[in-house]
């Protein structure tokens, strides 16, 4: 992680990443720092860091997740369906598409938010290439070009995952700034403060 800025590790199935997306952008813009977008394979992260996939968690933990989502949705004025029709399918293609577009130097905020919104707000299956093609077209991205590029980005997807684990990441979304890890969109205020303190000290 030699590049300065915010290293943003997130799962393309993360409802919490969707809730934090706009606020992260606002923080980065306020401080003039870049965001390095790094989709990761969260099931692999969990397997190697002691995490438990949602469907395997106790009923109490699953119920509390829904309560927290509802609280944050009310607070932020954002809609999320806690139990969408296609919940947390294989995110490989969605992730590699975002990586490919990002590697080309194009903005990815609207693209990754559209994919997350498709799952958490529109009951769409984001593992379905046809659904992803529709999202790409809505972003004015050529599917005939970007699907082959996504296939070439699989190693980078694994590299992001390895890098995340090395940085101490164990959940999504996670933000690393100046070597300090912040887990969860509910820590964005703390990330904001850390950037402010660092900016003042240099």
TrEMBL record:
Enzyme class of the recorded protein, top EC level: isomerase
Single Gene Ontology MF annotation: glutathione peroxidase activity
Keywords: Isomerase
Active site: 14 (nucleophile)
GO terms for biological process, alphabetical: glutathione metabolic process; naphthalene catabolic process
Pfam families (UniProt xref): DSBA
InterPro entries: DSBA-like_thioredoxin_dom, GST_Kappa/NadH, HCCAis_GSTk, NahD-like, Thioredoxin-like_sf
Span of the signal peptide: none
Key word Isomerase present: yes
Entry's family note: Belongs to the GST superfamily. NadH family.
Protein name stated in the entry: 2-hydroxychromene-2-carboxylate isomerase
Source organism of the structure: Alcaligenes pakistanensis
């Amino acid at each position: 992680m030699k590049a300065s800025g915010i290293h943003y590790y997130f799962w393309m199935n993360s409802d919490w990443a969707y809730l934090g997306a706009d606020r992260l952008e606002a923080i980065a813009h306020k401080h003039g720092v870049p965001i390095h977008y790094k989709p990761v394979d969260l099931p692999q992260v969990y397997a190697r860091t002691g995490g438990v996939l949602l469907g395997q968690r106790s009923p109490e933990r699953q119920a509390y997740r829904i309560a927290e989502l509802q609280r944050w949705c009310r607070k932020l004025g954002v809609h999320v369906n806690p139990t969408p029709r296609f919940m947390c399918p294989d995110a490989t293609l969605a992730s590699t598409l975002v990586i490919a577009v990002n590697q080309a130097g194009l903005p990815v905020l609207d693209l990754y938010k559209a994919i997350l919104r498709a799952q958490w707000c529109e009951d769409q299956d984001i593992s379905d290439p046809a659904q992803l093609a529709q999202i790409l077209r809505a972003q004015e991205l050529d599917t005939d070009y970007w699907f082959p590029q996504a296939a070439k980005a699989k190693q980078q997807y694994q590299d992001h995952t390895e890098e995340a684990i090395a940085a101490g990441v164990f959940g999504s979304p996670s933000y690393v700034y100046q070597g300090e890890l912040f887990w969860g969109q509910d820590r964005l205020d703390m990330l904001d403060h850390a950037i402010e303190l660092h900016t003042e000290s240099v």
